[in-house]
Amino acid sequence: VSLYGSHINIALDNTDLTLDIASPSLSYFFSNGIFLNLNHTLIDKSFSNPELNYLTAKNNTTGLSTYYFFNHSTAFISISYTDSKENAEDNNYDYRQKTTSIATQKSFSFLGKRSKINISYAIRKRDYNNVSAGSTEYRTFEDRDRIKIYFDTRLSPQWALRLSYDFKDRDSNLADYAYDNNLYSFRVQYQH
């Protein structure tokens, strides 16, 4: 059992965004290598600029994740599901979102270095139920498919390298929200 909470203040161009977050969770690891996690997250977001008050919202998200560890815990497969509901000051921004994801990870030795590869796929369906079906001003839906792959390796006890690829295919009734996104990145990390 755990409880996470935070107060975050982000300075944006014309306003500050404040996020108050509380997230209780319940986890259990079974002796056969199965790990379950049930969590609920409450988010209260607000803006310092009164012109953006219509975006002020409360979000409730419930999630269930299960992991199966195998091969002496050097690999896992996970399946996760979240159901989220956001209520904004302006009903045109209220949404219900459901996300399902699957991931697998394997640790191994690469050129004698401790390494791992992770591959995940997620489907997100977001519906704005209070918006009229033919709206050309507001989103009625915003869906996303995502594939992410990363490779980590320890170059030495202090140095590590991560190579990653992140693809997102977005769809919406509004053209500004319907696009593909490809992100290639690498990260070099030093620990002293």
Give the C-alpha Rg.
Answer: 20 Å
Detail the poorly predicted runs: none
What order do the helices and strands follow?
EEEEEEEEEE
Decide which structural class fits the backbone: mainly beta
Overall average residue pLDDT: 95
The largest β sheet comes out as: 10 strands, antiparallel
The count of strands amounts to 10
Question: How much of the residues is beta strand, in percent?
Answer: over 45%
The largest beta-sheet arranges its strands as 1-2-3-4-5-6-7-8-9-10
Total of helices = 0
Distance N to C terminus: 32 Å
| Shape summary | globular
Percentage of residues in helical conformation = under 10%
Notable features of this structure?
192 residues, mainly beta, 10-stranded antiparallel β-sheet, globular
Describe the structure.
By secondary structure, the chain is mainly β. It is built from no helices and 10 strands. It has strands at residues 2-11, 16-29, 34-47, 57-70, 75-88, 95-110, 113-127, 142-154, 159-172, 180-190. The chain has a 10-stranded antiparallel beta sheet with strand order 1-2-3-4-5-6-7-8-9-10, with no helix packed on it. A hairpin with a 6-residue loop joins strand 5 and strand 6 (95-110). It is globular.
